[in-house]
Amino acid sequence: MEEGIVSLHEKLVNKEITSEELVKKSLEKAKEAQEKYNAFVTILPDAKGVNKITSLLSGIPYGVKDNYSTKDVLSTGSSNTLKNYVPFFNATAVENLQKAGAVIIGKTVLDEFGMGGTGTTGHTGVVKNPWDETRMCAGSSSGSAASVACGVYPYALGSDTGDSIRKPAAYCGIVGYKPTYGMISRYGLFPFASSLDTCGVLTRSVEDAAIVVDAMKGLDENDMTSWDSSDIHLYDSLKKQTKAKKICIIPEICDIKRYPHASSELKEHLENFQKTLEICKSLGFTVEEVSIDENLLNALASVYIIISCAEATSNLSNLTGIIFGPRGNGTSTLDFIKDHRTKGFSPLIKRRFVIGSYVLQKENQERYFRNAQRVRRLIVDKMKEIFKEYDAVILPVGTGPAKKLKGPYDILDRNTTILEEHLQIGNFGGFPSITIPNGFIDGLPVGVNITGNCYEDEKVLQIASLLESKMPYKGQIAGRKEK
Amino acid sequence: MKFTKEMVLDYADKLLIGLNEEEVNLVLEEFQIIDETISSVCDIPDLSKVEPMTHALDDFTFVLRSDELEDGKDGYPTEVLLRNAEKVENDEIVVPKVVG
Fold first, then answer.
1. Which residue from A minimizes the CA distance to B55?
2. I need a labelling partner for A182 at 20 to 30 A (CA). Which of A268, A272, A303, B92 fits?
C-alpha cells in the first residue's frame, strides 16, 4: 500500500496481486493507523476487492473524509450532532470513484464539519501526526492526511474551505490538491461555507492526485456550481510538459526580512523555500517578485472568518436533532433543538456560529459581511492580474513543520501571520492550488504551495510535477525515508 | 465597538445554542480582533464602491436543471428518508404537541 496508483494498477493487471489482497493489507494498516494516530471514525472490515480491473483506480483501496455522504455507511462530519447519521446516497465524487471500481476502506476524522485547522475537534478525539505523535496533523482533513502519510492506501478524499487539504498535506509530508472550485461536484459533501468549499484529494504524488481528480470530477446536475471539465485531462497533461513556466512569489508573505522576530524554525522554513526557488530556476522557470498591498493581506484572516462563519451559520441551521441526529431533551421543540445543539457542537463551532450570526445582523452586515466580501474581491482581482502575467504563484505553507498538540489553537490571535493564512486566497478566488513536500526541519516535513488561475489546473499540476521530480520526497511514507 | 457578554448570549440564543462562561469569553476575545482588523479595512479608499464578491466563480453562468422528475427516478421510499429520525410513527416524525 506504500506504492503509487500506477504501480499498484500494473500489479493488478499483471495478476501479481489481487484487489482482495490489497484490501486486506489496507485494512490491516488502517487498524494500525487507528491505534496509533486515531485517523478513522469508521473502518469497514467487510470491504471487498473487485474482480474486474477496468480503470487505473479499479480494485485499489482509498479513504473518505467523514464529511462526504457514503450510502449505508456512517457519516458523522466528526460531530456529535450527526454521530448516528447514515446517508441513503453517495456524494457524487464518491459515486464517481465507485464507478471507477475504487474500494472504500474507511471514513477519516476531520475537525468538526471541517471548521478547524488542527485535527483536535472531531468527536472521536485528536488525530496525531505520524511523523511525531506529539504534533498535530493540521486540519480539517486530518485523518485523511495521517492515513495517506503512513501508507494505509495511496489516496484519501479531503475537502478544503480555507486550507483544509493543503495544510495537513504539508504537515504530513504528502501532496494535497484542491482543484478549481466546482470542478468536482459538492453534492453530498456536508456544507461548511458554500462559496469556498472545494472537494479534493490527499496523495503521495502529483501523478496520483491527477489520476484521482480525473475520476472524481465532472458536471453534475445535482450541483449547480459544477462545470463541464471534459476537456481537462490532468493525468495525460503531466506527460506533455510544454514551455518554460513563469512563476512569482509575494514578498509581503515570504520575505524573511518581514519577520524580524522569526523563530529558528521559521528561518529554516523560509531558507528551505529559497532552495526550492533555486530548483525552480534550474528547471528553466522564471521566478519574479510581485507585491500585494499589505492592508489587504493583513485583513485576510478576518475576511475569511467573517465570510465562512456567516455561511456556516446558515448552512448548519438544519442540525436540529429532529430529522437526523440524536434528539435533545426538553418539553418544547425549541428546547430540544437547543439542547441538541448545545450538547452536540464543540466550543469552536459554537464560537464560529455566534460570529456568523453577529456579522449577518441587519445593523452589522454592511460593516462586516459586505466589507469582507468587498476585500475578497480586491484580493481576487489582484491575483487575477498576477495570473495574466504569471503561470502560478509559489509560496511556503505555514510557518514551519507541524505544531505541537498542546494548545491553544484555532483562535484568531494578534500574532497570526499572513504566512499561516495565505492559502485562503485560493478559496476566495476558487483557484486550483496544490501543496507538495519540499523538505524537512528537525526531522519533520514542510511543504510548498503552487496556485494558479481558475480552470488552469493542468498547468498548476505540471509545475508541481516538474518540481516534485527534482526533489527526493515523492511517495514518502511517514518516518520511513531520509529525514 | 464594545462587545458585551449580553450581546454574545443574545446571538447564541437566536441560534438556539447555549454557551458557558469560557465559551462566551472566547467569542469576546476573538471578536475584538476581528473588529480591529475590519476597522483597518474600512480605511481602504473607495471600498464602498467595490462590488461585494459573493462567490468563488462570479464570472460563472449557473444553469438550473428542470424541476421535474426524470424517467426512472422516482425519488426515495419514505422509510428510507425517515430512517435517521429517532421518533417516527406512521411515516411521520413525532414532535411535542404545540397546539392545545
1. A195
2. A303
Domain count across chain B: 1
- Phi then psi for A253, rounded to 5 degrees? -100, -40
Q: All 3 cell numbers of residue B98?
A: 404545540
pLDDT digits (tens, 9 = 90+) for A259-309: 888 889 999 999 999 999 999 999 999 999 999 998 899 889 889 999 999
Question: Between vectors from CA A238 to CA A233 and to CA A244, what angle results, nearest 5°?
Answer: 120
* CATH number corresponding to A1-483: 3.90.1300.10
Residue of B9, B29, B59, B84 to mutate for A, most A C-beta atoms under 10 A: B84
Domain, as residue range, for B18: 5-48
Q: Do B84 and A371 touch (CB under 8 A)?
A: no
pLDDT tens-digit readout, B8-18: 999 999 999 99
pTM tops 0.90, yes or no = yes
ipTM: 0.91
Orientation of helix A371-389 relative to helix B21-42, angle to 10°: 60
Interface of B with A in 9-28 (CB under 8 A): 11-12, 14-19, 22-23, 26-27
Q: Which of B8, B15, B31 to mutate to test the interface with A (most CBs of A within 10 A)?
A: B15
* Residues A124/A92, Cβ–Cβ less than 8 Å: no
Q: To which residue does cell 511523523 refer? A: A131
Q: Would B75 be classed as within a structural domain?
A: no
Give the whole-angstrom CA distance, residue A478 versus residue B2: 48
A92 vs A37, A89, A176, A221, A242, CA distance in Å?
Answer: 29, 9, 20, 10, 33
- Does B38 contact A372 at a Cβ distance shorter than 8 Å? yes
Instruction: Calculate the alpha carbon distances from A230 to A105, A218, A227 in Å.
Output: 28, 7, 9
Residues of A within 8 A of B14 (CB-CB) are 357
- Residue type at A78 in one-letter notation: S
| Mean pLDDT comparison of B28-32, B48-52, B57-61, highest-scoring range | B48-52
Q: Is the CB of A355 less than 8 angstroms away from the CB of B41?
A: no
Which residue, A432, A447, A424, A440, is CA-closest to A196? A424
Q: Measured between CB atoms, which of B8, B27, B96 is closest to A332? A: B96
The CA–CA distances, whole Å, from A181 to A217, A225, A347, A418, B62 equal 11, 8, 29, 23, 13
Residue pLDDT, tens place only, B28-43? 988 888 888 788 778 8
Q: Is residue B40 part of a domain?
A: yes
For cell 486515531, what's the residue? A38
10-residue averages of pLDDT along chain A (483 residues): 94 97 98 98 97 96 98 98 96 98 98 95 97 96 98 98 98 98 98 97 98 97 93 96 86 91 91 98 96 91 93 94 92 92 92 91 92 96 97 96 78 65 97 98 97 97 96 92 48
Chain B positions in Cβ-Cβ contact with residue A89 (cut-off 8 Å) = 76
